[in-house]
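Z., the sequence and structure:
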Amino acid sequence: MTDQEIEALADFPNAYWKRFTVTQQDLDGFHHVNNAVYLKWLDATVWEHTDSVGLTAEVCLKMERGMAAVRHEIKYLASAFLDDKVVVFVWISSNDGRLRCSRVFQVVRLSDHKTILRAQSDYVSTNLTTGRPVKMPEIFKTDYPVMLPKDAVLP
């Protein structure tokens, strides 16, 4: 599939996305992707998106600031199986410019274009030395803009 064809599968425009192929190690005893693997894919997509906007781990460590996950809500809608190709779409759904931001996710199985998972994750700006919540630096306000249309209705 072309990038344009993949982007057309997203619930909303302006998604950041990453492809994955299901491996034997991703499977559980029922021969479908283990629940923990989906969270791993969401996390890998977040890290890649964060790097793409210039907030690499090195940059955050120098500032002693990062966004720590405080909540994940995952809705499993269908399964993925060995050798399936999937794409994880992610959008910044909110950023209060002070302490909190959220992301929404959609995982699509490419063979049939079926959405197999939807999720939301909430994050808090954190001092990486103390682990305590702290007001987000200006760069987090500008480099984590809300990516959803203003009239977006989350599924």
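The first helix runs from residue 3 to 7. Helices lie at 3-7, 35-52, 57-63, 138-143.

Let me know what you think.
H.
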